[in-house]
């Protein structure tokens, strides 16, 4: 079973793709929008990634979800299953190719902290970035169970990196 797209070398145009959608996405949230961030591997220079732009949107509350879903649908985004309590997920495909993912969480949600911390770790630690890239390429090459398997097998690496940061802060 294939991943949603193939891992490719870093493309310097990825941040521009994020910026291109940022203003349109903001319209779907009105006054509940707190912040918007480019996260995931496409937000990390020099890191190979699936060319899918990950957007993290922080909201003050999850209000007017039905109206939000309608606006996002007009922009090509389909709501998926919630990834955890209060962590809403949307995806946009062009044909059969995944191009964007949106994570919507209340400000301060644990997912917000984890995604921003891990992104910044990868941006600032070239050794960690290389190890993560090597793992992703290996997982893609050996994957038989699709995205669920890929995410499950990346999880321990991400958790270990976040725990190391947490231990340093104590």
UniProtKB/TrEMBL annotation:
InterPro entries: GrpB/CoaE, NT_sf. This is GrpB family protein. It comes from marine sediment metagenome. The lineage of its organism: unclassified sequences, metagenomes, ecological metagenomes.
